[in-house]
Amino acid sequence: MAEAEESPGDRETASPRPLFAGLSDISISEDTPVEGEITIPMRSRAREFDSSTLNESVRNTIMRDLKAVGKKFMHVLYPRKSNALLRDWDLWGPLILCVSLALMLQKSSVDGEPGGGPQFAEVFVIIWFGAVTITINSKLLGGNISFFQSLCVLGYCILPLTAAMLICRLVLLAGPGPINFMIRLFVVVVMFAWSVIASTAFLADSQPPNRKALAVYPVFLFYFVISWLILTFTP
Amino acid sequence: MAAVDDLQFEEFGDRATRATSLAASPDAATVSIEDPSDASKHQPGPPGRLGREEDDELLGNDDSDKAELLASQKKSSPFWTFEYYQTFFDVDTYQVFDRIKGSLLPIPGKNFVRLYIRSNPDLYGPFWICATLVFAIAISGNLSNFLIHLGEKTYHYVPEFQKVSVAATVIYAYAWLVPLALWGFLMWRNSKVMNIVSYSFLEIVCVYGYSLFIYIPTAVLWIIPQRTVRWILVMIALGISGSVLAMTFWPAVREDNRRVALATLVTILLLHVLLSVGCLAYFFDAPEIDHLPTTTATPNQTVAVAKSS
């Protein structure tokens, strides 16, 4: 326990320091020990988590993560400038979206004809390596976003394109034709614009102002390639 | 507290006295960071560089000393840190646009490297221009094939996604391995013949990367299924990017043996021609081939098919 040694100090520092004028009036005798308790206002919920997540049921754990993922989906669908996507990043959503998109892009090709659509691994690689490349690019340009936050945003903003893929597959059940193609084109273009707008709403603020276009263009290219994959899908 | 006068910077005399004191050791190479207009008067320069006044505008001798000093100051982080690689992305949006514009409008007599890059080579331009070009060629090729075979009953559309990896390999190999070979070659010739102009590896990568930009709109326009239109586009693109490359590398090999210099330039241009013609041939089906005999083929077209096969 430290004793207060303010009285000798007061005499030295009192006069040329108008800033601490009030201190010279305070003096604590040497007999009084100074002690106390420092409490930092923490979120008490965190302490409960630490002790009780081991004991909770599996359903609780899964539902908690699913709710976090669902909340982020809502943020992507209605892009506002909020920090929720960036603050608590997680990669579950991107994984779910990536796997579902890659599965939907599979065609039931019995004969392995060359020059077909992308394989599952190719879609996976494009999405993840594309996102990593864009993240590294934005960090090299001087952006102050963390690596996983950027991956999280880019992955979640694939949601409109996954929805477009679903709609395209349903539309293709009606049979090929030019009207079919027009509908698919319109849907893919709208969803592509939605993805780009959503991701730039989250990412653009973290870039230095004179390099925003340099950091946004690769995002545009990334979603353009995915949109092309979706548009050219033929069962 | 120290008096204000003590903090005054000591003057070591003006430039004239400094120059005379340094003139005592005439062999010393003095580099002073001053206005470019004054620098040509003051620098004695190393003994190898005779004053070639007509080349100053092209080569920027006074700029190159200052630029080298700045360049050596810039890259001081060791290569395993992230900051080292950040120095290669130290460009603003308007700088990238200026460099792209410079590659589209080659002005005779202006060197692309000296004018636009100025010892700040960036890797952003080459990397993303190559990436865009890869996808532009693959997508345009696919679209063009689709449009050519549109009416045929037996044609089943395939996205041909595997061609993207072929395109990526070819274009990135061209944009990185050819500059590596060229840089090695220029370094080797530099050791034999004293050249005024020498480019660093990154500057050569930069020139090659930005010179490929013209192929992006060319690839999009190659969708038009007309033979003559495609070849005219090839000529235009080759003319523009070839002249950028030629004007950049001519000052670097000019000092050399005449034949070596010409051979170097011819090789550079030949590789460029090979790239564009190869891309056109592989990714874009010829407009008259693959038409089934049921379509009305005039004798002219069959002759063209026979000639091109």
From TrEMBL, chain A:
Residues 76-229 form the Yip1 domain. It is found in: Golgi apparatus membrane; Membrane. It is a multi-pass membrane protein. GO terms for cellular component: cis-Golgi network; COPII-coated ER to Golgi transport vesicle; endoplasmic reticulum; Golgi medial cisterna; Golgi membrane; Golgi trans cisterna; trans-Golgi network. It holds the Pfam family Yip1. The chain crosses the membrane at residues 89-108, 120-141, 153-175, 181-203, 215-234. InterPro entries: Yip1/4-like, Yip1_dom. One of its GO terms (biological process) is intestinal epithelial cell development. Keywords: Golgi apparatus, Membrane, Transmembrane, Transmembrane helix. Its main location: Golgi. The keyword Repeat does not apply. The keyword Transmembrane applies. Belongs to the YIP1 family. This is Protein YIPF. The gene is Yipf6.
From TrEMBL, chain B:
It is found in: Golgi apparatus membrane; Golgi apparatus, cis-Golgi network membrane; Golgi apparatus, trans-Golgi network membrane; Late endosome membrane. The keyword Transmembrane applies. GO terms for molecular function: small GTPase binding. GO terms for biological process: vesicle-mediated transport. Residues 18-58 are annotated as: Disordered. Keywords: Golgi apparatus, Membrane, Transmembrane, Transmembrane helix. Its main location: Golgi. It is a multi-pass membrane protein. One of its GO terms (cellular component) is trans-Golgi network. The chain crosses the membrane at residues 123-144, 164-188, 200-225, 231-253, 260-284. Residues 104-276 form the Yip1 domain. It holds the Pfam family Yip1. Belongs to the YIP1 family. PANTHER family: PROTEIN YIPF, PROTEIN YIPF1. This is Protein YIPF. It comes from Nannospalax galili.
